[in-house]
Design a protein that fits this description.
By secondary structure, the chain is of the alpha/beta class. It has 19 helices and 24 strands. The strands form five sheets. The protein has a nine-stranded mixed sheet with strand order 14-15-16-20-19-21-22-23-24, sandwiched between helices. It has an eight-stranded mixed sheet with strand order 1-2-4-3-5-6-7-8, with helices on both faces. A three-stranded antiparallel sheet has the order 9-10-11.
Amino acid sequence: MTCRLLVVLLMMFLTTETDAEDWPALPEQNGAVEIPAQEWPLRPGPRRVRVLVHFPGGKLANVGERTGLMLTLHNWGGTDCVGTASPTVLAEKLNVVTLCVNYLQSGPKDSIEGPEPYDFGYLQALDALRALWWLDHGLKGRGVKFASGRVFATGGSGGGNVTLMCHKLAPRTFACVIDLCGMKKLSDDIAFKLPGGSDLDARYNRDPASPNYLSLDHQELRFLGNPDHLAVTKLLGSRTRIITVHGRDDTTCPFADAVEMVDWMQRAKLDVEPHFIGKDRIDGKVFTSTSHALGNRTEIVLQLGAKVLSPGDSDRRERTDQSDFERRETIRYGTSNGVFEIDYAAGFPVGRFVANEQLPEYPNHQDLSFVLDSDGTKRNVKTFLDWAKRREHIVRHFARATGPLPGPMRRVPLDVKVVEEVNVGTLTRRKLSFQSDPTDRVTAFLFLPVVHLDRVKSGTREPRAPQSPAVLCLQQTTNVGKDEPAGVRGDPNLKYALELAQRGYVTLAPDYPSFGEHAYDFDPKHGYVSGTMKAVWDNIRAVDLLESLPEVDGNRIGCIGHSLGGHNAIFTAVFEPRLKAVVSSCGFSSMQKDDVPSWNGPPYMPRIATDFNNDRARLPFDFHELIAAVAPRAFFASAATKDNDFDVSGVKDVLEAARPIYELYGKANDLVGHYPEAGHSFPAKSRQRAYEFLDRVLQRR
């Protein structure tokens, strides 16, 4: 039975489960009802959720044209309206119908004492959204006029988490959501009761055989600062005002997680309004604590949300387009191994996870003219969609050798620390380190070109730093590491970080793991199965660093490397779309013409030996595919004709195979092969050609 058929059957079941007669009528006055909910896989069978309804003045008859709808959601371990803003006060002061929802695992028996892991927002938000849909649908069904665009949500602690997840799963429904010290991510310490930033215990297990197993996909969905998912939210057109209130001394729901989420929301250009509560905000009435409690959560909502939530205020927020309930579309959030779909076909949301299709095996990895469907059917690559499918297969096959690209949970704050700063001619060179993942720091050299000076009307000279293109400069195999591309020591023909900076680029030269000052032992306990993927992740974080600099134009970033750096640049570009140009010097050949066992050491891909027996016929990738996967971004190969490491004929084979893909994009001129008469080196004339290539593509002025 196919995955798609299973999804159809699941939808039929869920639709049957929630027929019209199962939904209660709206009460005429404040009261409680029970609504049908989506099945919880850990306790199969029908499930219902208690909802408390609070009308303005206590009666349905008081709902008018300016009356809105609002969720106010309880904390982890609570029930009804515990730990959140008062529903009766909100109903009266804001003219809203408020709902308190006993979402999945309400109460201490299930949320704290139960054997199952804590849901952490997903099904809980679906429960709350169903309650909201029931109210919206019920009012419309009775012909009651109300302000359907005035839809809000708030909650404290666990309720804040569910509030934020409600917005994620229904990004075009709310005018404003207010999170009060909610959990922002299901971090490892919370999920698995590990030492870290919180003492919360969600009771998950790392063992795939355990019923409490936490998959990476579910962890990624529950990361409310997930940059990939925030980009989807923005693309869908969310205009919700997201007010997040968090105590600076909160250790229950760590303050650092709030800072991280806000940073990613701001980068995604969502309308987020942070309030980080320090001692200066303590007034003894509204705010009484800088920790998790915060203070009077009803008054906090009224104070910080007054202008946005009040129906008569000139700054009020009110959605003017259709809600997700009305659109009846499916929202999709991709994760490492599939996609979460939130389906509104029935009006109310139905959530499901759809795993990636089975990866087809290709007879060879040198022929890029076709793509295989999941059933093995062969189709010629004729369109962008055809190639996108083949590219997906290329990346997934490559990951069989390297291990998976880390998910967004490993994207910790960079925490850049400058060790020294010196002037090198007209340049500034900074030696620094940055946090690549939760347990490892990377050392690097950063070059900043001369700051331009402009005269202003007053006659004084003030510094102005125009944004420049940037290049990530990757080292060859050398113990001196980053020092060589920085021109500090090593081969003077490989000081491309220095030379490009002299040319006007911002450049960053990091140490490869285990070289230079980057001590690293390649133990799988760090979370990587290959040195290649560890280096790729370090380089992706290096791009994060470059993009964060005010001197850098984030749309003009390239990468260059020789030998180890040459293929490291390719590997990184396959996973990092922000790299707009790639230069590889003596960095690759066809794997069919290379020494396969030389790739299986700890700094590279041990699986080539353990999983593929060093057999080139069994390898799941070749450079033909990887170079094509860089398209339509520009690629320059400097392949020395006398290179004893990488056979030049294999380089030509690779570029010839990749060229039709560049032609498909109309970018044939951006795939360049240069063949100097030299050994394994990067001669001056070749570097000059490479620099001119970067100048053209990255528009160096």
